Amino acid sequence: MKLGIIGSGKIVHDFLTTAAKIKGLELAAISTTKRSQPIAKDLAKQYNIKEVFADNQLLCHDDNVDTVYVAVPNSLHYEVVKEALLAGKNVICEKPYVETVAQAKELKEIADKRDLIIVEAITNIHLPNFKAIKQQVAEIAPIHIISLNYTQYSSRYDDFLQGKIAPVFDPAKDGGTLTDLNIYNIHLAVGLFGEPEKVQYYPVMQKKVDTSGILNLVYPDKQAVLIAAKDSYTTPRSFIEGEKGTIYFDGSTGVIKSFMVEHRRGDNSKFNFNQFDHRMASEFTDFVKIIDTHDTQEANNLYEHSIAVMDVLAKAKQSVSSN
Q: Which helix (H) or strand (E) holds 166?
């Protein structure tokens, strides 16, 4: 996979620290705004990225690029992804996918007509620990209570309080805790248990954006509480509680470094099946395989999962506006 990166923000810096460990991945190009060109040039020099552009169209039409990684603010995902697809490139789009299900379906139609792959970059559902938890859930079922927590005091929160609004706190750019952090919890819940019957979001609002919030998902036989906060500090712990036992883990729901299984019969076990230390390595290893083998079936499976997550996200936003 010959990757062209659009964007130079925090997520790109994070990804590039592990890119060299991903087999089959070639860093072909990076494109940013003219204002961010010095950053892009520094990244290119540090990580041996072959080309640097100040125009996304030039990257999208670069013959040395076959896949575009879209890592721009949420509100720009749709237009940048569409531009890349129309230029004949496969696309990896950072979470959250796009702003509406209609946009996602339009982009998928464009990709299918051109026989291209499009996937959403979301770390947790590609982790071996997630796949292992999915198997362990059956061992402690029936499941009745789920509590997923991604609390992370934002490095940009103090600036936010002073009126310096970064995109992740800007409602006009689809910012906020629901789309930035709780999205990981939604991916986990949908990946493990499917779509809920009802969705209700209870946000803490500051400056017209949710800086934290609790999302309730109602299933026929279980209840899920999804907690996320950018304005609070704790070491989060997540639980999946069943009649025969409990699965729990500490830390980010986007990382899942390890997990515990505690059985009602008394035995406890700790597991870690992750192959990489960096949270993004597993997802991009999967993406290289999917794109290089043109595995449309797996791409379609991931697309259906993303659509289900987007539906939950849309209902969560609607539940706030309707109250």
A: none
